[in-house]
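Usage example:
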Amino acid sequence: MTAPATADPVPAQTPGPGPDGSSPLRRKLLVLLVAVLLLAGVGIGAVRYAADRADRRDQEQAGGPPVHEGTLSLDAAGGRRLLVRNLAWGPHRDEIAAVPADAPDGPRTASGVTCLRFHAAAGTGICLQAEHGALDDTYHASVLDASLHEVRRFPAPGIPTRARVSPSGHLVGWTVFVSGDSYAGTDFSTRTAIVDTRSWQFYDNLENFRLVEDGHPVQAADVNVWGVTFADDNAFYATVATGGRTHLVRGDLAARTLTTLHQNVECPSLSPDGTRIAYKKRVDGADPAAPWRLYVLDLATMTETATAEQRNIDDQALWADDRTLLYSMPGDYGSDLWTVPADGTGTPAVLLRSAVAPAYLG
Amino acid sequence: MYLADARSTKSDRAADAAPDPRPGRRAAAVPGTVLALGAVSLVTDVSSEMVSAVLPLYVVSALGLSPLGFGLLDGINNGVGALVRLLGGHLADRGGRGHKLVAGLGYGLSALCKPLLLLVHTLPLISGVLAVDRTGKGLRTAPRDAMISLATAPEHRGRAFGVHRAMDTTGALIGPLLAFAVLRVADDRAERSGYGAVFTVSGCVAVLGVLLLVLFVPGRITRAGLPAADPAAPGPTLRDALALLRRPALRRLTLAAVLLGLTTVSDSFLYLLLQRELDLPAHLFPLLPLGTAAVFLLLAVPLGLVADRIGRRTLFLLGHAVLLGGYAVVLSPLHGVPAAATVLLLHGTFYAATDGVLAAATAATVPDGQQGAGQALVGTGQALARFACSLAFGAAWSLWGPRPALAVTAAALAAAALAATLLLRPATPAATR
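Running the assembly step on the lines above writes:
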């Protein structure tokens, strides 16, 4: 507070009182007030518009599939059925719902359990959920028993994107997106975790596994792992990205290693017979906004086969059986599920509207 | 703390923004112009951090896109950002109202980008809009710091920059809170319209920031005790801007900032190291930047005052010693949450002791007419050096692993700090006058 006194007055550039006697400051504050009111009006209008639209989504959509509340089981018994996150508008939106595998257009049975991402096998479910806190969203992975009750919950550090259960139901894995911290940050990264539901051992970040490329250990700061698919209760496949390239890796849980097998593979999905991987391939010459196509890799010969789906794909495909792939495409209500033969023949067809995150049971 | 400052000087603010001609009036502790610029930065940071906070969620949940491999543009952005910053600083020095004009363009450009986000739905386009937003930031940074320098008596610049940085960081902390509040009210369920509301509100907040600049930041910055610059005087040419480097004090400061920047690990890498080397649970990762920001916010003003007392160069060097301490904790056998909290405390202190302080130190080495170019030069040198450090650190991590890479960086930081101490020690009185 020892600022020097002004020695010489600042030359008069100071506006005096306005013609109406109000000071310039007063006028400025008035302008500010009017602007704040206007801007607040626009902001409140935008928020109310969005809220109205959100309310409409709780009303049942015309022509949408009928959805009833009911009980779901993740057991093998009860016939073959498809479980999805239901996106059809209405009170059961975002809930895990079941349809008979042979009548996917039929009525859906909603479970009351809400998940962003979901997968299930052999009586175990993995459900990635958001918690809307007062200050921000947080996420967790919830391991479900056969009656869809939470058995255990694990914290997840970002936005859920992929989830898988091993064929035995013993292992669950998931991937979330973590965003960077830089100004207008665009440096996204992933965190992939696996839990053994028998011992509850929690591998919270597969980036800490040893990465082996062409027989040599590799370390890099920019390693990202995503899209786990399980072979058995120890081996799994996933995508590892480093140095701007993606690799298919084979993971060994006990040895804590990831070994690269093939380049340019994202979101692998292992066929039920364990011989092929369906995946997203980044193709040359495609629109940079939509560069991925659905491919199948034969693990014995490492030959790649393009499927008949020509559009960009952004999903971890699911094998409906050893011949057919199931995947999501953008739809009128978020996303629809499509099928295409895995051998490159046929044409894509819609299986189920307004649904995402499928799993077959029974 | 700065809030109390702001409140106590509120009545002086108007008088300072439109200087009172009455003789004998004492200059306010923190000039009104600085508070006005602080308010502009606060509001603008609320706006931009609203977008940053929900953007990943928007891209993944509402657009259903995978954002990986999306950061590739960051390197190009850094380079362009540096050039734009130099340009902004130089242009701002030309003409009497240049600083306000160029800063206004920068804030305006970023404000325009918010409604644009409502219209683009693919990653390349979103990333293009973010690049323009960043260009706006590059453009406005140097003129803004120049205006803070010009408005403040030299002996109080540490405090003035501290107040500004504290207000700026406050905005960055409020932004995400406001964004999620909007999402709560509008729509929790990850739909496009909910994010549309966030982008619209963010745009409105950004416009408010520009308006605050237009209304309350004077076009010609004057400070108590000095006559206003002669408006008829010709603005500095590009040659004059380059000639700045012939000033030994500025050259030494730039060199010191570059040397230290070359050994300053980026925030992203530091947080990654905390998680990997200190065995921090993965779910705490999103909280790490908040820790740094909170400490920066709390210490920016007190350390600004310390800088005025003991000298900006000294504190700038001490700040890097604190950072070295942070590296040492990461390299030590300490583990877990307490160790990470200690590192964040040191990291936030480092920012509080160096960020605004470097700007204050720069202000003392350049003439008033070239504050914009001077601030741009030092700031750009530091930013490019840090970017080079990121590239080198990433390579060293791949080559040797994270621990050895940090150990080497720590050794280099110690050497750079010694060199910088020698560089900055002969503080010739002429240079600071």
